[in-house]
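Render this sequence as a predicted structure.
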Amino acid sequence: AKPRAAAASLTRYSVYDDGGDQDEVVELLVGDFEEAGTNHNRPTYQKVTDDGSAEVFIFYWDSRDGIEFEGWYIGQAVGGEELWAFSKSKSLKPPRAGWRIPVDGEIRKSFVVAAAAVARQEQEVQPSADRK
């Protein structure tokens, strides 16, 4: 198999926020993420940047440290202490909605984690939806 074909088969997610009032944390989290391994039997994803420098990961943490910690996180490192977003979901893939920013804050309804192809379609449709 060609290396490019293998890279193209990796699952990608797009993170976006259509709330309009993005703070620094939300701006840091918004972007495309590519599959980058596994943690606790779920895939992990790393933010894609031109220079590969982004230390932003989406990962799952199981209940080994207590059920209150189980769920999906967005943080600086897989399993790290610098965490910016949390969802209680136990799904096999990152949940679309229900993300708390900060991790102990309120659910940010405008924050979306979607499969990259779906996210592109939604963002292309968005302007026409605003004209209703």
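Summary. Residues 1-8, 128-132 have pLDDT under 50 and may be disordered. DSSP finds three helices and seven strands in the chain.
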